[in-house]
């Protein structure tokens, strides 16, 4: 997954000029964020723990987070920041495994059905949230 958080500028990404058009089909509001907040703690924010827990949380939602026609990435990062109080760009700056992003592990059919997000083996999660996260950061 390529974590594309915006740290504040005016840069935008995405196809076309319309931005997010639909509401996210995943209800990130009531998710349990302790998988991230219990492991990714300041002031040092250890890379292994932060990125590992971020992948554990986000990878089941690869398809939804990669869909630029919805607001899933924006919504997810707004709640991660709400509960974790993370500095802008933390995950984008720390979580890099190459130009294709962070590899999401293949999920077993049982775990995939548990989260209603079956994904292809060795799928890559592309979080196109530079624009989405910059809007959130500007609102703070």
UniProtKB/TrEMBL annotation:
Residues 26-102 form the GPI-anchored protein LLG1-like domain. It comes from the Eukaryota. It holds the Pfam family LLG1. InterPro entries: LLG1-like, LORELEI-like. This is GPI-anchored protein LLG1-like domain-containing protein.
């Amino acid at each position: 997954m390529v974590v594309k958080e915006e740290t504040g500028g005016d840069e935008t990404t995405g196809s076309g000029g319309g931005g997010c058009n639909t509401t996210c089909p995943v209800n990130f509001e009531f998710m349990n964020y302790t998988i991230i907040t219990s492991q990714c703690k300041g002031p040092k924010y250890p890379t292994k723990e932060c990125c590992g827990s971020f992948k554990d949380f986000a990878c089941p939602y690869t398809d939804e987070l990669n869909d630029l026609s919805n607001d899933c990435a924006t919504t997810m990062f707004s709640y991660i920041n709400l509960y974790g109080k993370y500095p802008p760009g933390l995950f984008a700056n720390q979580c890099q495994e190459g130009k294709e992003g962070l590899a999401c592990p293949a999920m077993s059919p049982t775990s995939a059905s548990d989260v209603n997000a079956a994904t292809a083996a060795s799928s890559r999660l592309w979080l196109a949230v530079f624009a989405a996260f910059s809007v959130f950061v500007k609102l703070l």
